[in-house]
Amino acid sequence: MNRIAIIPARGGSKRIPQKNIKNFCGRPMISYPIEALKKSNLFDKIHVSTDDKKIKNVVTSLGLKIDFLRPKDLSNDFTPIMPVIKFVVEQYLKMNQTFEEIWIILPCSPFLSSSDLIEASIIFNQNKFSNPLMAIAEYPVPIEWAFDINENGLLSPVKKGNFAIRSQDLKKKYHDAGMFYAYSKDIILNVDYNGSDQNFLPYLISKDKAIDIDDPEDWEYAEKLFKIRLI
C-alpha cells in the first residue's frame, strides 16, 4: 500500500516566529517528526508542504527533497489544512505518483514516535480505510468542570452545577492531539474546503506526549518535558 506523509509547514508563524524550524533541544523542531516518519518505514514519500525557502533549506539539509513549493494562495493565516493536502495529492497525481493512504503529520510534534505511527497504521488498515483516523488524547480534567471569566472578572461555570459531579461519574472526553491524521486517497480528493470532524477512528496518545505548542510558554514547557524524558 502506497503511503505519503505530508507535513504542512508554512512560514510566517506569529506567536513563535519560524517555530517549525526553531531550535528545540538542539535540533530544528521539524526534524523530530521527520525522524519518526523515516524510522517507521511506512512511507513511500515524505513531503513537507511549505512556501518558505528557509524551511525548504532546513528540510533539504535533513535529507528530504521538496518536489514543489506551496502556492501563496494556500499559505495565508486563514487557509484550512484540507485544500493544502488536496493540492499536494493532486500535484503528485499529475506527476503519475498515486498514494492510497494520505497521512498528515503536524510539524511541531517532537514527541511523535515511530511506534505510534505503526500501531495507528494497523488500526487504519483493519478498518479498510472506511474512516479517517485521528491521534487523540484524554482531557486532563473533565470538560464539564469548565469555567468562563465573566465581564466582572469572576468565574462563571459553563454549565451550572457540574462542578459538584465527581470525575469518576463523568464519561471521559478526548481532544485532537495535534499530531497526525490518516485518510484514504478518495476522502482527500473528494473533501470539501474545510474538511469534516466527523467519524474519525481514534488513536489514543498518552497525555504527556500530546503537548500543543502554540506560544512561548508551551514551547518552554515542552522542552522541559522532552529533557526529562532523555534522563
Can you give keywords for this protein?
Spore Coat Polysaccharide Biosynthesis Protein SpsA, Chain A, 231 residues, six-stranded mixed beta sheet, alpha/beta
How far is the first residue's CA from the last residue's CA?
38 Å
Shape: globular
Q: Can you tell me the residue ranges where pLDDT is under 50 for at least 5 consecutive residues? A: none
What would you give as the CATH superfamily? Answer: Spore Coat Polysaccharide Biosynthesis Protein SpsA, Chain A
Mean pLDDT: 95
User: For the largest beta sheet, what order do the strands appear in spatially?
Assistant: 4-1-5-9-6-10
Radius of gyration: 19 Å
- Outline the biggest β-sheet: 6 strands, mixed
The count of DSSP E runs of length 2 or more, i.e. the number of strands, is 10
Query: How many helical stretches?
Result: 6
Secondary-structure class: alpha/beta
What order do the helices and strands follow? Answer: EEEHEHHEHEEEEHEH
- Please tell me the total number of domains: 1
SS strand fraction: 15-25%
Query: Helix share of residues?
Result: 25-40%
CATH class: Alpha Beta
CATH topology: Spore Coat Polysaccharide Biosynthesis Protein SpsA, Chain A
Structure commentary:
This protein has a single domain (3-230), classed as Alpha-Beta Complex (Spore Coat Polysaccharide Biosynthesis Protein SpsA, Chain A), CATH 3.90.550.10. The chain has 6 helices and 10 strands. It has helices spanning 31-40, 53-61, 81-94, 114-126, 185-189, 216-230; strands at 3-8, 23-24, 27-28, 45-49, 101-105, 133-138, 147-149, 155-157, 174-184, 201-204.
